[in-house]
Specification:
Layout lengths: L2 E2 L13 H4 L1 E5 L2 E2 L4 E7 L6 E4 L1 E4 L5 E11 L5 E5 L7 E2 L5 E3 L3 E3 L4 E2 L3 E5 L5 E11 L5 E10 L18 E3 L6 E5 L8 E5 L5 E6 L6 E5 L6 E9 L2 E10 L2
Length: 247
């Protein structure tokens, strides 16, 4: 079984995103950028496909750390479980599409080694996509990673969507309070800008054809939290950045 770690679509938020840097997600000895993803390849006959991560409290405070599992696109009738200090019984896909763990008290600089995401294919071919959000109670500290479990079918990860070339663009300020400016390549003349929440639901949509260079976008209708801003061309994502609303 091979692990293929892809960070071509890593949603980097730069040094301005202090909160994500307060929690470190460690994968095979390297720190993941907030919003990164991992592709785990296996097959439908596998009994258990799992991925372990280390989580570090990268602050000088003692934190009560939790993890939320979100099923973004999981094959029906498969099973899954999320270990966080303890490993609970497995759940059927869709039974608990969003579930948050009890907290683990972590001292400054402490590393928690118990996290493991498990996917049980039950003989079913497909790709199961999860998002795991690590956060500290009573703070704005957040960090997330998406895990794609491929069990007998290629996963449509962000880097493989129709082979579309990913573009670079800037967002500032970030974190933001009520307004952001999106600096889009002037050669991008058509398409859409969409903003989605961590559940993958679209909360705002804009037509790129109406934009010119820098575009100011109001965030006043969005609650505090982390969102993904994506640029779509021909209905396919060609660029994404994470943004944080913080008031």
């Amino acid at each position: 079984m091979k692990n293929f770690f892809l960070m071509l679509f890593a949603f980097s938020m730069g040094t301005a995103f202090i909160n994500a840097q307060s929690i470190k997600i460690i994968y095979q000895g390297s720190t993941l950028v907030n919003g990164s993803y991992i592709l785990k390849n296996s097959n439908a006959s596998a009994i258990d496909i799992s991925q372990n991560l280390w989580i570090q409290n990268n602050t000088t405070d003692t934190l009560n750390m939790r993890v939320t599992k979100i099923e973004l696109d999981v094959v029906p009738n498969t099973l899954n479980a999320t270990c966080w200090e303890v490993c609970p019984p497995s759940d059927t896909a869709g039974q608990f599409p969003t579930i948050t763990s009890p907290f683990i008290r972590m001292d400054p600089a402490a590393i928690e080694y118990s996290f493991a995401a498990h996917q049980y294919p039950e003989g079913l071919s497909g790709c199961s996509h999860f998002r795991f959000i690590f956060f500290a109670d009573g703070t704005n500290y957040r960090d997330s990673v998406d895990i794609y479990f491929s069990h007998g079918q290629n996963c449509n990860t962000p880097a493989s969507i129709n082979g579309q070339q990913q573009i670079a663009f800037d967002i500032f300020p970030n974190p933001a309070k009520d307004l952001i400016t999106v600096n889009i390549d002037e050669n991008i003349l058509e398409g859409e800008i969409i903003i989605t929440n961590l559940l993958g639901l679209t909360v705002a949509r804009y037509n790129v054809a109406e934009l010119n260079g820098n575009k100011e976008i109001s965030l006043e209708n969005l609650e505090n939290g982390i969102y993904q801003l994506s640029i779509l061309k021909d209905k396919e994502i060609i660029g994404t950045r994470s943004i944080q609303v913080l008031r």
